[in-house]
Design goal:
This protein is mostly helical. The chain is built from eleven helices and no strands. The longest helix has 21 residues.
Length: 194
């Protein structure tokens, strides 16, 4: 997402300042219009940076203030980013009747490749329910998939500590295939074998 935002930011800057790829167009556009658009674009860039940093409320506010005075090229992008901020904020405010349903949502994010969003949701579950073994287990799966072996082991060990049945589940879970050759993983799953 960040690369596409960066590319769009560069396109918008070119459009706002009147710089085009066509050299003849550049010569004509370097007049007074460029100076007027530059401060607007700086505010736009700052708002996009806030969005990239996950500061959706601040980004939304900045984009909404910028929208009325922005050139048409930036207005279109502002509207798009405003929608993005609103969706992100709606997702952050999402409420779940039970922690298990929240977990199902986090796992659906994991299964569709939204790893950071899944991690945030699992962390939120643990913040609200520190004894949720299934959330530690979900984090262990996430860390295995993303190649963070030590974090995987730490979370899986905590899940097993809270619920020994997690050990049996992990033994047959294909999501831990990245950990199969790690002797620490084998030791965690089969402590009875010397």
């Amino acid at each position: 997402m960040h690369d596409s935002i960066k590319a769009m930011t560069q396109e918008a800057r070119s459009a706002a300042t009147g710089r085009k790829k066509n050299p003849a167009a550049t010569a004509k556009s370097d007049g007074h219009g460029r100076g007027r658009a530059e401060p607007v674009f700086q505010h736009y860039e700052a708002a996009v940076l806030l969005l990239q940093q996950g500061k959706y409320e601040k980004a939304l506010s900045a984009l909404e203030k910028l929208l009325p005075d922005a050139p048409a090229e930036i207005q279109d992008r502002c509207r798009m980013y405003i929608t993005t901020c609103q969706r992100q904020l709606q997702g952050l405010r999402r409420s779940f009747p039970t922690p298990e349903e929240h977990y199902d949502y986090a796992i659906s994010l994991l299964n569709t490749g939204y790893y950071e969003e899944s991690r945030e949701q699992l962390a939120q579950i643990l913040n609200d329910h520190p004894g949720a073994d299934y959330a530690f287990y979900g984090l262990a799966v996430l860390e295995s998939i993303t190649g963070h072996a030590q974090d995987c082991l730490n979370n899986l060990a905590r899940a097993i500590e809270l619920n020994p049945k997690c050990r049996l589940q992990a033994r047959v879970d294909n999501d831990f295939q990245n950990m199969a050759d790690d002797p620490r993983f084998t030791e965690l799953l089969y402590p009875e074998i010397p």
